């Protein structure tokens, strides 16, 4: 008999269904040689300081710093019943080994190991490591279980993170609270995040906008603009001296814009915030729900590529995603799998993509937020394997009264992947790009009109929670998978 330990009841039920463990008991399912149960999040947590020494129940400057030599753990107050069930299951004589089936990541590993050690279990265990909750993925995962010891380093990394949080949070909070006579919470992630926000708001408050001026001239079928001037008088002088413009530079180059990569968690959060207005947490919650419903792959990933063994099935998946969320005026799409496949850029989990369960899903039953995220993920898969976007870019520079004026134009040669991008999903707008006429160096052009444009420098932008997720990764205080 094998005891399978999942992270949530819903995940345990999906696993039990595949394994044939259909008999429901209090806190677990059993059958076909398996017992399947769950943790309900963090069942076991680090003990508070007063557990180590009663004197720590009162906050005192003289007692700092507090550094446990032998770390102790406690069962969370609200989960004692489930922990008791797991402890009994681990102790059953007919249970010969365990399978760690918590989320395939650092925190999932920690959840299982803490329960395993707190229960005093010494039985061997294996690791289920999958990136999809599809039945076929679960089945393949159980056919290829890995030794639990392969993930010792991941567990130790989780312990380091957890204990660093405890040391910084407990000691710094007590230090500043006793010094200032009020509760001042300090945390390893929270305080640097607050510092970033304070520094950005200070920069915004101290910002003083400056006016600038540009001169815009109208020519035969297009406009060109000068550089910025600090005073209106300087711009006015240029305006008065400009009547005939002479072409100094005229270049036309064909350029290619590659499709955007598949989503990892942070890029999905950023896009969902920009397009849909969702917070980072909302996007994570919606994507996690879709994962547990088997509709997308594992969300807490830092990779934007797929593995080579997935390439052969990609065409069918792309077609399924495209027909599930069709794009107006597009009948079929190419599939360039090589654009999204790179084993070297996949670590624990590949990029977030939809699954084949799309064909069984009744989209009308999905909550609005989950449906919107599913559409983003499906559309990005189709876009990422699409043809490149090709265009001709024209750059013209002119001399008018001794001042250089410049303009750019663009003519689309091939829409490529941009034909698949939803109207509200475009990262760049080409609406204001001119189509320029053919000109040659030395051509003289009569100025049909001049206009002075006034502008103002902009302050730094306020942070959003999505930007915070990115910044915390950049400075190393939080990982993408824990955002």
From TrEMBL:
<feature type="domain" description="Topo IA-type catalytic">
    <location>
        <begin position="151"/>
        <end position="483"/>
    </location>
</feature>
<keyword id="KW-0799">Topoisomerase</keyword>
<dbReference type="GO" id="GO:0043597">
    <property type="term" value="C:cytoplasmic replication fork"/>
</dbReference>
<dbReference type="InterPro" id="IPR000380">
    <property type="entry name" value="Topo_IA"/>
</dbReference>
<dbReference type="GO" id="GO:0006310">
    <property type="term" value="P:DNA recombination"/>
</dbReference>
<dbReference type="GO" id="GO:0006265">
    <property type="term" value="P:DNA topological change"/>
</dbReference>
<dbReference type="InterPro" id="IPR013826">
    <property type="entry name" value="Topo_IA_cen_sub3"/>
</dbReference>
<dbReference type="InterPro" id="IPR013825">
    <property type="entry name" value="Topo_IA_cen_sub2"/>
</dbReference>
<dbReference type="Pfam" id="PF01131">
    <property type="entry name" value="Topoisom_bac"/>
</dbReference>
<keyword id="KW-0413">Isomerase</keyword>
<dbReference type="InterPro" id="IPR023406">
    <property type="entry name" value="Topo_IA_AS"/>
</dbReference>
<comment type="similarity">
    <text>Belongs to the type IA topoisomerase family.</text>
</comment>
<dbReference type="InterPro" id="IPR013824">
    <property type="entry name" value="Topo_IA_cen_sub1"/>
</dbReference>
<dbReference type="InterPro" id="IPR013497">
    <property type="entry name" value="Topo_IA_cen"/>
</dbReference>
<dbReference type="InterPro" id="IPR003602">
    <property type="entry name" value="Topo_IA_DNA-bd_dom"/>
</dbReference>
<dbReference type="GO" id="GO:0006281">
    <property type="term" value="P:DNA repair"/>
</dbReference>
<dbReference type="InterPro" id="IPR034144">
    <property type="entry name" value="TOPRIM_TopoIII"/>
</dbReference>
<dbReference type="InterPro" id="IPR003601">
    <property type="entry name" value="Topo_IA_2"/>
</dbReference>
<dbReference type="Pfam" id="PF01751">
    <property type="entry name" value="Toprim"/>
</dbReference>
<dbReference type="InterPro" id="IPR006171">
    <property type="entry name" value="TOPRIM_dom"/>
</dbReference>
<dbReference type="InterPro" id="IPR023405">
    <property type="entry name" value="Topo_IA_core_domain"/>
</dbReference>
<feature type="domain" description="Toprim">
    <location>
        <begin position="1"/>
        <end position="134"/>
    </location>
</feature>
<keyword id="KW-0238">DNA-binding</keyword>
<protein>
    <recommendedName>
        <fullName>DNA topoisomerase</fullName>
        <ecNumber>5.6.2.1</ecNumber>
    </recommendedName>
</protein>
<dbReference type="GO" id="GO:0003677">
    <property type="term" value="F:DNA binding"/>
</dbReference>
<dbReference type="GO" id="GO:0003917">
    <property type="term" value="F:DNA topoisomerase type I (single strand cut, ATP-independent) activity"/>
</dbReference>
């Amino acid at each position: 008999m094998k005891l399978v330990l999942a992270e949530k009841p819903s995940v345990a039920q999906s696993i039990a269904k595949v394994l044939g463990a259909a008999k429901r008991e209090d806190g677990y399912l059993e059958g076909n040689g398996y017992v399947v149960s769950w943790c309900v999040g963090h069942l076991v947590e680090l003990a508070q300081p007063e557990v180590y020494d009663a004197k720590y129940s009162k906050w005192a400057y003289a007692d700092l710093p507090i550094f446990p030599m032998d770390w102790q753990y406690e069962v969370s107050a609200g989960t004692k019943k489930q922990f008791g069930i797991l402890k009994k299951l681990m102790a059953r004589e007919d249970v010969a080994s365990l399978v760690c089936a918590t989320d395939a990541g650092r925190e999932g590993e920690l959840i299982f190991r803490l329960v395993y050690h707190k229960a005093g279990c010494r039985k061997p265990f294996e690791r289920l490591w999958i990136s999809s909750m599809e039945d076929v993925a679960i089945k393949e995962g159980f056919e290829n279980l890995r030794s639990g010891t392969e993930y010792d380093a991941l567990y130790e990394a989780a312990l380091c993170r957890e204990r660093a949080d405890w040391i910084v949070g407990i000691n710094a909070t007590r230090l500043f609270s006793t010094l200032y006579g009020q509760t001042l919470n300090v945390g390893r992630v929270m305080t640097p995040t607050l510092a970033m926000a304070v520094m950005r708001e200070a920069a915004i408050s101290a910002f003083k906008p400056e006016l600038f001026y540009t001169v815009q001239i109208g020519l035969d079928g297009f406009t060109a603009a000068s550089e910025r001037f600090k005073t209106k008088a300087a711009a006015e002088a240029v305006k008065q001296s400009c009547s005939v413009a002479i072409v100094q530079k005229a270049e036309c180059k064909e350029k290619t814009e590659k499709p955007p990569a598949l989503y990892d968690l942070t890029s999905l959060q950023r896009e969902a915030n920009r397009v849909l207005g969702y917070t980072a947490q909302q996007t994570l919650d919606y994507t996690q729900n879709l994962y547990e419903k088997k509709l997308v792959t594992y969300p807490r990933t830092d990779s934007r590529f797929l593995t080579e063994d997935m390439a052969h099935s990609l065409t069918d998946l792309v077609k399924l995603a495209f027909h599930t969320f069709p794009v107006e005026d597009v009948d079929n799409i190419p599939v360039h799998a090589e654009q999204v496949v790179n084993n070297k850029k996949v670590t624990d989990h590949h990029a977030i993509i939809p699954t084949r369960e799309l064909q069984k899903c009744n989209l009308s039953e999905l909550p609005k937020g989950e449906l919107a995220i599913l559409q983003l993920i499906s559309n990005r898969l189709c876009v990422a394997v699409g043809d490149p976007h090709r265009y001709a870019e024209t750059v013209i520079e002119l001399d008018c009264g001794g001042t250089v004026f410049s303009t750019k134009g663009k003519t689309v040669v091939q829409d490529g992947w941009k034909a698949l991008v939803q109207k509200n999903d475009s990262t760049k707008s080409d609406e204001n790009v001119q189509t320029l006429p053919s000109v040659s160096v030395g051509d003289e052009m009569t100025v049909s009109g001049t206009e002075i444009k006034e502008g103002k420098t902009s302050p730094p932008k306020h942070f959003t929670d999505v930007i915070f997720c990115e910044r915390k990764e950049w400075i190393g205080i939080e990982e993408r998978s824990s955002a």
